[in-house]
Specification:
Elements: E1 11-14, E2 29-33, H1 38-41, H2 44-54, E3 58-62, H3 71-84, E4 88-93, H4 95-109, E5 132-137, E6 149-154, E7 159-164, E8 172-175, H5 185-204, H6 213-232, H7 237-257, H8 261-273, H9 277-292, H10 298-306, H11 311-321, H12 338-354, H13 367-379
Parallel strand pairs: 1-8, 2-3, 2-4, 4-5, 5-8
Antiparallel strand pairs: 6-7
Helix pairs in contact: 3-4, 5-6, 5-7, 5-9, 6-7, 8-9, 8-12, 9-11, 9-13, 12-13
Amino acid sequence: MTVMNFSIPRTIIYGEGSLAKLADLKGTKAAVVTGGSSMKKLGFLDQAVAILKKGGIESIVIDGVEPNPSVDTVWRGAKAMLEFQPDWIVAIGGGSALDAAKVMWCFYEHPHLTFEDIIPVGAMPPLRNKARFVAIPSTSGTASEITAFSVITDTANHIKYPIVAADMVPDIAILDPVLPTAMPPHVTANTGMDVMCHAVEAVASIAATSFTDPYAVEAIRLVLENLDTAYLKPNDKTARYNMHNASALAGMAFTNASLGLVHSLAHKIGGEFGVTHGLANAILLPYIIDFNRKFTKKYDYVEHVLGVRDLAQAIRDLNARLEIPRTFKDCDEVDFSEAKFQKVLGRMSERALADPCTLTNPGKPCVADVKALYTAAYYGNA
């Protein structure tokens, strides 16, 4: 029997007002990493810095992380850290800010490395030589606060790279459901479906175990029962609390069981077109569940436990209620021109098959399978 690991953050602090626990950190300097301007506008960034100051910790802010964080942004942040020498890295914001901060952390501790050095799974050297890591998500979606994953974009070559290293699991995750109440409805929808995708792919993964399945199934249940409410009633505290917890639970499952073809295809179509990751996952997920049913009975297991008749159809119905398009050609977030889609389909399919997430997908998909899935998700045919 294969020997396996199960890793989660050492400390998970959750519930309304948990952001205040930043004051309990023991240290002298913190680099606070965030995205565009939402955390600043909403007051959460200033609140975090003030709480750190209350605890005796001096801070710098590294902001401007893009929705698809780039290699250049990672190096910019690492350079700022090298100059400031923090003993804590505090990432606050959406999954992009958390993902970028993780890899900044790596290059802060190991400035001699290149980005190419850490692309292979498990290639990153040990962290925590200079700093420890706190993750505070503002969206209920990526679960980067829980996981050993980061997704960084090579903007020159239009490729998103999933970086996987056990040491990137944060030391502390703070899940304060007050932060995601400020998310616009479409962000709530896209990030919420990212949670669903993490949980469903973790269940179907060939690396799933009795340690990971309970977290994944509970996350699916929470999404089915709460995402509609969070979307329609953004200030509903119960729905926000449940979705924030669902994101973390799904993260516990997939950081240990890994993912599958949905993420492989989403990474590559995101790199080519710039479509939001959660939206790409939501569109792809039902098509890939239908494809994977030939190779796994795990969807039947989920349906039995949760009393769902057809998981793929339940997700299609949920997407419709969240106003998520059924196909990429119907998506107006970015320009999904048919000409460009056909032009990049071949290389996109090859790159998706080579994505690390494909390794734990049920069955043994080939390039032709991936092309067929992209085509189905673009045009809407089965």
